[in-house]
Amino acid sequence: MNLSDKYANEKIIKSKKRIQNHGEVFTPKRIVNNMLDLPNIREACENLTSTFLEPAAGEGIFLVEILRRKLALVKKSYGDDLLRYENYSLLVLSTLYGVELLEDNAQKCVMNMYQVYYEAYQQQAIKNGRKVKNKVLDSAKLIISNNIVQGNFLTKLSTAGNPIVLSEWKPLNFHKGVKTIRIQRTEYTLLDILGGIKKEGGEPLTYLKESEQLDLFDFLDDKEIAKKERKQMKYIAVKVTDVYREEMEEVDE
Which residues touch 228 (CB under 8 Å, ≥6 apart)? Predict the structure, then answer.
């Protein structure tokens, strides 16, 4: 099969109306692969911890192909041990981000990335005579759902009008030979990222807890009434296979 046959039925538009309203045109796969094969980009694809942010993710054609390439490297280097494969495959998944304006595209991007991850993981589990683990799949779902965001990259806002939020998944013990990777999650707005803002590890963007019920005896002491108590929380460092739990703890002041 030649290239013209391989891509003959590939759709690069959904409708003329979507082109008029949103300028939506999908990049052909052959062009995607040609671009990813450029020297500097190819080297980044071969680096397990290099991050990619696609500002107009569409259905994820670039992100999916990068994920395939990174997973192939994980399989080659760590495929003989399913635990290591699980850890490193989730690590590479955490390095891929996308922002997409249209809801159907964003949903398809999430599904496409999960399908690629699931199929690769399932094949590796079968090869090792094991079964896939729900906690690994749940962690993959959480990472993808937080890394692929519906919103407008130009305005830096979500469809609800709030700042676009992305999570950094920083490996704390990443070095040659490590078997179980620990991750520290920190949340940033897109403006934070583009502005080079650095935060303390584990910091989320929202950390309000509802206060306890008002003690009626507070009136006798002229204390302030009916306020919410602000408690600063942070994500705790966990195994990358346990990020689905979204565990947090209160910060000591």
Answer: 208, 209, 210, 211
Contacts with 78 (C-beta within 8 Å, 6 or more apart), sequence order: 84, 85, 87, 88
pLDDT surpasses 70 at 15? no
Q: Tell me how far CA of residue 121 lies from CA of 132, 134, 138, 172, 226, in angstroms.
A: 7, 11, 13, 23, 51
**Nearest residue to 70 (alpha-carbon basis) of 54, 46, 50, 86:** 46
- Return the domain boundaries, the chain: 9-250
End-to-end CA distance of the chain: 65
pLDDT at 188 over 60: yes
Reported as a single tens digit per residue, the pLDDT across 99-123 is 999 998 999 999 999 999 999 999 9
pLDDT in tens, 153-175: 999 999 889 999 999 999 999 87
What tokens were used for 57? 């993710």
Q: How far apart are CA 231 and CA 112, in angstroms?
A: 38
- One-letter-per-residue 3-state SS of 32-52: HHHHHCCHHHHHHHCCCCCCE
Average pLDDT taken over every residue of the chain: 84
Radius of gyration of the chain (CA): 22
Cβ distance 124 to 85 under 8 Å?
A: yes
Q: What is the DSSP letter of 214?
A: P
pLDDT value at 7 more than 90: no
Residue of 73, 64, 8 lying closest to 36 (CA atoms): 64
Q: Tell me: the pLDDT tens digits for 138-155? A: 999 999 999 999 999 999
Q: Exposed, middle or buried by CB within 10 Å (0-12, 13-18, 19+), for 242?
A: middle
